[in-house]
Amino acid sequence: MFADRANIIIRSGKGGDGHVSFRRELYVPNGGPDGGDGGRGGDVIFVVDEGINTLSDYRHRRKFKAGDGQEGGRRKCHGADGEDIILKVPAGTVVKDKESGKVILDMSNKKEPVVLLKGGRGGKGNQHYATPTMQAPKYAQPGGKAQELEVMLELKVIADVGLVGFPNVGKSTFLSRVTNANPKIANYHFTTLNPNLGVVDMDGSKGFVIADIPGIIEGASEGVGLGFEFLRHIERTKVMIHMVDGASVEGRDPIVDIHAITDELKKYNKEILEKPQVIAANKMDAMSETDRETVIDLLKEEFEPEGIKVFPISAVSGEGVKELLWHVQGLLDELPEGATEFEQEYELNFGEEEGGIFIGHPEEGLYTVEGPKVERMLGYTNLESERGFDFFQKFMKENGVIERLTEMGIEEGDTVRLYNLEFDYYR
Predict the structure, then answer these.
(1) Binding residue numbers for Mg(2+)
(2) Residues at the annotated binding site?
(3) What are the OBG-type G domain coordinates in residue numbering (predicted)?
């Protein structure tokens, strides 16, 4: 099955914790701190793989996780970095935030790998926290947190031209005539299930990619049938060809059909209708000269005042096809090169955790609060004065220490130790 949508959970690696250890060697009984740094967590990386054209790899696996960094070791040994995870996607893949549906990343024109989620930084070992007043720090920095996100991958076909129309108007026949595509052609009363892509090559021009967007039916913009799955492919195209059955072989009115499809496109995304449009009135070979002129005159009268040119063609005989293709090429030449890219709507902002305060619970009834931030605060605060003690209490509250101690289950009468200072905890 053609897979053009998948929901997955991605997670970067957690940074490894810094290590707490002290140099212990013969004849060096009081060696300094030698705890090593933790390793960096792995990144989540997206890369375009030209060899794949569906998202089928993501339909049966939901979670993708990078490796965690390892903890630092003794003797200043650095922990190993976590392994990156590389997610290969086809060109045209758009990454959206699952909850809001907003665009995070469009891989259409990305030639280089893109880091979407960064791994947590490695925590610093206790060797970094030695100071003249604290020569044996018993704390190290925890590793940075992992980042996790649920995203929706959508494949929007990259084609210069989108070919739209109701089923059985001759789109597949037209595509097989003008490109190297080999679509299945039959009198289906429903629709082709997959978008068919082909390249149009013409002497003296650059050529272009055309996509036969599966038949759109009324109600597609509301998800009727496979509406959403098909309509999203039109967003990427630069020019649209409306193909209609000019001969009304199945009793359809071509003008009514064009208005019906236009209404569906408008409901789905009105910006699509700002693209240049062309009408191809097909099956002219099945009409008399008089009927042909009548139909073409009616179509031109209805749509050419809106700037939409009408071309009578026959996908079977090839009549009028070259004129249509040259007109489309001219429209493309006036537009910027490169695939249409969706702007970022959702900015990832996980933030780096507030470092410098580490809270421990080494034994029943005892909690420790340490770290560079605490150490600096104690260095400039006189706890023996009323004003200084008030500042100390405010520091503990504003930096979330009291809240964290409460979460850890501290009770009245328990001891809170800040290095060589101890306090009894009371609410």
Answers:
(1) 172, 192
(2) 165-172, 190-194, 212-215, 282-285, 314-316
(3) 159-333
The pLDDT score that the predictor gives to residue 324 is 92
**Parallel, antiparallel or unpaired: strands 277-282 and 309-312:** parallel
Q: How confident is the model at residue 4 (pLDDT cuts 50, 70, 90)?
A: confident
Average pLDDT, stretch 21-38? 79
Q: How many CB atoms lie within 10 A of CB 246?
A: 27
Q: 356 versus 148: which is more confidently predicted? A: 148
Of the candidate ranges 104-113, 264-273, 373-382, 384-393, the one whose mean pLDDT is the lowest: 373-382
Residue 70 CA to residue 39 CA, distance in Å, equals 5
Tokens coding 354:
């507030």
Q: Which residues pair with 244 in a beta bridge?
A: 281
Residue 51: count of CB within 10 angstroms of its CB: 7
Which token pair is 150? Answer: 């649920």
Who's near 91: CB < 8 A, 6+ residues apart?
48, 50, 107, 108, 158, 339
Q: Which CATH number applies to 358-424: 3.65.10.10, 3.40.50.10330, 3.30.300.350, 1.10.3210.10?
A: 3.30.300.350
Is 171 within 8 Å of 261 (Cβ atoms)? no
In angstroms, the CA 269 to CA 135 distance is 65
What angle in degrees, to the nearest 10, is found between the helix axes of 227-234 and 254-268?
Answer: 90
Which residues have C-beta within 8 Å of that of residue 337, sequence separation ≥ 6? none
CATH number for the domain running over 1-154 = 2.70.210.12
Does pLDDT of 182 surpass 60? no
Residue ranges at the known binding site for GTP: 165-172, 190-194, 212-215, 282-285, 314-316
Alpha-carbon torsion (419, 422, 424, 427), positive or negative? negative
With vertex at residue 415, the alpha carbon angle to CA 414 and CA 416, rounded to the nearest 5 degrees, is 125
Q: Are 15 and 41 in contact (CB under 8 A)?
A: yes
The first and second tokens of residue 358, run together, are: 């580490």
How far apart are the C-alpha atoms of 8 and 141, rounded to whole Å? Answer: 32
Fold topology of 161-333: Rossmann fold (3.40.50)
- Whether this model's pTM surpasses 0.70: no
